[in-house]
Amino acid sequence: MSRLLVTGGAGFIGSNFVHFVLRETDHTVTVLDKLTYAGNLASLDGLPEDRFRFVQGDITDAALVDELTRDHDAVVHYAAESHNDNSLDDPRPFLDTNIIGTYTLIEAARRHDTRFHHISTDEVYGDLELDDPARFTEETPYNPSSPYSSTKAGSDLLVRAWVRSFGLRATISNCSNNYGPYQHVEKFIPRQITNVLRGERPKLYGSGENVRDWIHANDHSSAVLTILDRGTIGETYLIGADGEKNNKDVVELILTELGQPADAYDLVRDRPGHDLRYAIDSTRLRTELGWTPRFSDFAEGLSDTIAWYRDNEAWWMPQKDAAEARYRAQGQ
Ligand code: NAD
Ligand code: TDX
């Protein structure tokens, strides 16, 4: 049994991880989360009180981070500003949380020799051509495109430097696009599902041909637990489940599942610097650590996710108008 400190545990992937850990292991969990616009305490409803604690706070608060890190066996670091579109509008919070926040945590982990796992993204590698058979590996050079992905790349490099220079007991994982319950309505899949549920049309950026490599949040969680258990200190592991789809195909699946014509979407202004394609080669994680994804059927996982949003309107509706107002202001 371990005491895990999970930063960003009230966000999308962090909350899925906390549910997964409390269901599948006997670890205890403390969540440290600032509850920004992206955090939602309702995502942590129903967890066992004897094994779960919530602390509201900022990962840049060195005194709080020091105290919490000292009292835990491992830190699993999800907290971040996570949305590319927001980073194009106002990069500053991305630097504060993703760079200074990560720095604050690894300094505390170094002081207390606490095991550290850093959650990152495939976006640090930039993008691939649509017709390129190549996929990202742990050896792909960093080439981030947006303020968001460049701050994630910076935070990865800080963790690597702390491993080499200070002996920080850390691992890093870079995962592809997640889907599942509890994802904020600003993100692609929830935005389109909730648009259709409200009688509005999905909005595709540009031509809709950009490709993302989708993985269910539960598969991301099982991969992170595997790395915490058996990962080699200092290593980076790519997490992906062979889920490449272009955005137009995803929107057509959502429309069809919700009984609408497959072409009932709008093409809107493209994202500046929009990455074309992401694709993950997760061979290292599969062969060295024996991990395999369980959600191999994207259409089935998407259908479950659509059902979750249909059944949990009270969770997403309070955020929807504000998210759409931001998009309207950007012509999207
Ligand atoms: P999210 O935006 O849904 O959640 C982020 C959480 O962090 C929120 O609960 C927020 O309140 C909290 N937070 C933000 N700033 C904070 C601060 N200064 N102090 C404490 N808490 C703070 O994000 P997500 O999609 O769940 O992403 C989680 C992590 O996974 C991020 O590090 C992201 O880069 C990474 N990631 C995401 C994806 C994806 O598809 N969403 C894919 C790969 C990696
Ligand atoms: O309304 C939309 N229409 C649209 O076509 C939105 C919101 C997005 N898109 C496109 C842009 C991308 O090609 O859909 C794709 C997915 O967009 P996002 O959900 O914004 O995700 P992405 O930019 O790919 O980044 C996500 O995956 C990697 C997460 O938000 C990041 O945190 C993670 O690092």
What can you tell me about this protein's structure?
This protein has a domain at 3-178 and 214-239: Rossmann fold, CATH 3.40.50. The chain is 43% helix and 16% strand. It is built from 11 helices and 13 strands. It has helices at residues 12-24, 62-70, 84-89, 92-112, 147-166, 188-197, 217-230, 247-257, 283-289, 298-311, 313-329; strands at 3-7, 28-33, 52-56, 74-77, 115-121, 170-175, 178-179, 203-205, 211-213, 215-216, 236-239, 244-246, 266-268. The chain has a 7-stranded parallel sheet, sandwiched between helices. Helix 2 packs parallel to helix 4 (92-112) and helix 6 (188-197) packs parallel to helix 8 (247-257). The longest helix has 21 residues, at 92-112. The chain is globular and about 55 Å long. It starts with a strand and ends with a helix. The relative contact order is 0.14. Residues 7-8, 10-14, 33-36, 38-39, 58-60, 78-82, 97, 101, 119, 121, 152, 175, 177-178, 184 line the site of nicotinamide-adenine-dinucleotide (NAD).
Q: How many runs of DSSP E, i.e. beta strands? A: 13
Give the biggest sheet.
7 strands, parallel
Whole-number average pLDDT? Answer: 98
What is the H/E string? EHEEHEHHEHEEHEEEHEEHEHHH
Terminal CA distance: 47 Å
Radius of gyration: 19 Å
Architecture of one domain, CATH level 2? Answer: 3-Layer(aba) Sandwich
Number of DSSP helical runs = 11
Structural class: alpha/beta
Q: Which percent range fits the helix content?
A: 40-55%
Give the overall silhouette.
globular
CATH fold name of one domain: Rossmann fold
Strand residues, percent = 15-25%
What's the CATH C level of one domain?
Alpha Beta
| Strand arrangement in the largest pleated sheet | 3-2-1-4-5-6-11
Distinct ligand kinds:
nicotinamide-adenine-dinucleotide, thymidine-5'-diphospho-beta-D-xylose
